Amino acid sequence: MIATLVKKDFLTNLVSPRFTIGFVLCLVLIPFSILINISSFQDRAAQYRLDRDAAEKAATEVRVYSALRPEVVLPPEPLSVFGKGLADQVGNRVKVWLGDKPLLAAGKTAAGDNPFLASFFSVDFVDIAAIVFSLLALIFSYDAFTREKEDGTLKLQMANSLSRSTALAGKLLGIFLTLLPILVFSFLLSGVLVLLSRDVAFSTGEWGRIALLFALSLVYLAVFVFIGVLVSARSKSSVTSLVVCLFLWVLLVFIVPVVAANFAEGFVGIASRDNLDRVLKDIDKERQEEIRRAFTAQGIPDGWSCWWCSSGDDGAMEVYGGSRSDYEGFRRRAVISEPIRVAYADRRWASQKSYVDSLYRQADAAGALSLLSPAGAFRAVAAAVCRTDLASHARRMDRIRQYRESFVRWLQAKDIFRSFAWLTPTDPATFMTEDQLVEKRTGGEFKTEAAFETWASQQKDRRAWWSKLNAVKVAGDSPEGFPFLDISDMPRFQDQAGGLLSGLESSVLKTGLLVVAAVFLFALGYVAFIRYDVR
Amino acid sequence: MIGTIARKEILANLLGYKFYVVVLLAAVLVGTSLFIMARDYRDRLDDYGLIRPKPGEPIAVNPPNPLAIFAKGLDESMARSFEVGPTGITVRAGQKSANAVFAFFPTPDFLYIVRVVLSLVALLFGFDQVSREREGGTLRLMLANPASRGAVLAGKWLGNFVSLAVPFMLVSALGIAVLSLDPAIRFSADQALRLALILSLTLVYIAFFLSLGILVSALTRRASSSLVILLFAWALLVFVLPNLGTLAARQLVDVPSVRALSEKRQQVWTREVLLRIRGEGDWPSHIKAISAENDALEADYRVKFDRLVALSKNINRVSPVASFVYAATEIAGTGIGEEGAFKREVVRYKDGLIDRTLASPGPGAADTPAFRYAYRPLGDVLASGALFDIAWLAAGGILFFALSYLAFIRYDVR
Question: Is residue B220 part of a domain?
């Protein structure tokens, strides 16, 4: 009996114009969104390759350890072709410093680039699915009982030896059977487009995640089918049912998620970035003060001079052509300042963490509020499945911070702050005294530093000093001729993709919520239908 | 005759549940939206109080626009702080620190509610005008009287328009009245006029969708098929078409990225500084050169960007919904045109400051003129596109009504 009902409903739906419209709608919108996102993925992949090569070049072409600051460049997420999530909001480059822990990724983001271009909503498969699948589910279910009642077939049907449960089950199965081909077709079409594109390549795990997305879409579809059936079982005419369904659709899909996000933005404040910058500046000042005090305690003078050196941010210092005492002076400074710099990174992090936590808190509040709508829950779980949600980003940043720790540990294991390799590639065995240097540079004209100083103090034109000191070129006076560092044993950042289900722990609860909503709506629909006046 | 039919429609609407659902929905949504947006405006006003430049500081900041409560548009980007320095303009972050890890959502301002919800509501009022009465059998009774088909249609349109527009206007007026109790939110006479204009534009927008609903209703036999067709038309007009132009225009017009632009600026600066170090020319001439070159870069970018904006606007205007959004944001002073005028004003301010500093170098910071931006007068706004958008929206509505008359006179009322 039930098979007959299912077949009848399936055939009725199949010949109806809404099936054709739904199919065409998916045929147009889904390839459109997938193609746009594939092209945006290709842009990001091209940018990634440029950034990665630049970072690789910058990291390998250093001659001293103090200038070595690896930059992590995150590859674009292939699954973002389906669900963009935060992919456009957050950057993809993180520089690893000694005195600072990575906070947020830098780099090209759509939001920061141009406010006008970013203000247009970007559609992706998940957005289209959230809008279109829910609409299709309602369009096929709003008249489940009202249409048959209006045509008078419902009472004829119930005149047979047919229980209401069987009638309801037949109806629901008929609707699902009609929607399933549209859903399967949408996913197959997207899969084919991904396979055809040259740049996007999915691994087995990623195809598995697409399968999860399919299962999730089924649950989402079920929620809206049950909403439609419930409304239909509570209404007398199809038109009323359709009007109510549409209101619910607009409310659940368009209004609730938007209002939830803006409510969270208004009520859960975030810490001010300017404030954080001020606090960090103060901490930096304290750090400088502490380093200065330590220098004074050790009797190290404040200033320094050198023959050829380049200093940079974060304690970078590259020295050439110095005397043994010069090098020793720089080494003593680094031995004191660099451990303090590393220790202060933890102090900075305390303030940074409270800032970034406030960002996460606000986003989490918006996420929690958007669970009021099935569309919000669907989007949240879909973003997690596509690894473009906030939690994935937070995990990635955690891994980068761990990477920084391992980088710092690698430096410390080499006891590199105590080593001359921190400052100069010159072999310590070849270090010379001041006197030897002066003698070599002036071609033997002055035997000692003191002699040169005496002569120099009599000269009016300082340029004369330089011509004297440059009389003979001394090897190792400049970076030329020194090889780049061998950093083959430096730890590299590895972004593990994780298993099929990794990172989906919190999504289980949200999916569970959708399932519970579906079951609850089904139960309500069942009760409404057994009370339904079929005449 | 039209009056009788209109009265009948209004009374029928008053008796139906649809009317109450709509009024309740409109009240809740408009109330929520005004509440959220007024909060947002007050926050931004507080921030403005903090960052507003002291006299003599070469910083251009525009206070937030109270009309942004109704149509947010680009107000956030116009209310940023622009710091004038010798090398050009530094744009500070927004007045409100943005959450970088927050997914982007549209702002639920009054305009969004009208655009998405009110259009649907108008369609729901129009979709069954002809088909329901045919299904109920009252259409042939009505036309058995000496009532012309034109009068029936006009009466139906008028009755439904009134029963939709009056409650909506009441709800909006109530919302605005509550808003004006807030001492932080002050509208000038000009802004009040603009607000009135936006509200009347809303009525044109409602009329457009009501006519569309009646047209489809006169073309279909069943109310439910009419609604399904209208739903797809609604999705197309409100969501798909207004974004198509931007996507298409971005493929056609190539605009350099902001990053490339700032790198180019850096190059100009470095080149001039190096020239100066080599001893060519004097500082004022170099600063002038940097400023002029940056302005040229900015102007070149602006030309390309304006071309992109113009093209995407023109494609988007295929849907009168886009026209409505453009007209409303421009009238509110938060549109793309106003933003362009504002940016030009900031550049002019910078040029004026640099000329002053070069003319009389030294500690003359105290007499730095303060930056003040006067919004374009309403006449200019209307002339530069808003009037066309309004006319296009109204023409669309009239066209749909004319077509529905055409369809209705051929309609089999049995």
Answer: yes
SS (H, E, C) A46-85: HHHHHHHHHHHHHHHCCCCHHHCCCEEECCCCHHHHCCCC
Asked if A255's CB is within 8 angstroms of B336's CB, the reply is no
A351 occurs within a structural domain: no
- Note the pLDDT tens digit of each residue in A223-254: 999 999 999 999 888 888 888 898 899 889 98
Give the domain range for residue A439.
429-475
In a domain, B414, yes or no: no
Task: Give the helix/strand (H/E) hosting A209.
Answer: helix A204-234
Do A125 and A184 have their domain in common? yes
Tally the domains of chain B: 1
Mean pLDDT score of chain B, rounded to an integer? Answer: 84
pTM higher than 0.90: no
**Looking at beta carbons, which residues of chain A come within 8 Å of B95?**
none
Alpha-helical (H) ranges within A79-203 are 110-113, 115-118, 125-128, 134-141, 146-151, 153-158, 164-196
What share of chain B in percent tops pLDDT 70? 92
In angstroms, the separation between the Cα of residue B38 and the nearest Cα of chain A is 10
Whether ipTM exceeds 0.85:
no
- Residue A141: list chain B partners with CB under 8 A: none
Same domain, A105 and A197: yes
CB contact under 8 A, A85 and B232: no
When pLDDT is averaged across residues A306-334 and rounded to a whole number, the result is: 85
- Say yes or no: A210 and A264 in one domain: yes
* Domain assignment of residue A496, yes or no: no
Eight-state DSSP code of residue A252: I
Q: How far is CA A340 from CA A97, A286, A301, B108, B232, in A?
A: 13, 11, 18, 49, 65
How many other β-carbons are positioned within 10 Å of the β-carbon of residue A514?
19
Chain B environment of A17 (Cβ under 8 Å): 225, 228
- Number of compact structural domains in chain A: 2
The answer to whether position A16 is within a domain reads yes
Q: Is A321:A479 a contact under the CB 8 Å cutoff?
A: no
- HSE-up of residue B344 (Cα within 13 Å, Cβ side): 14
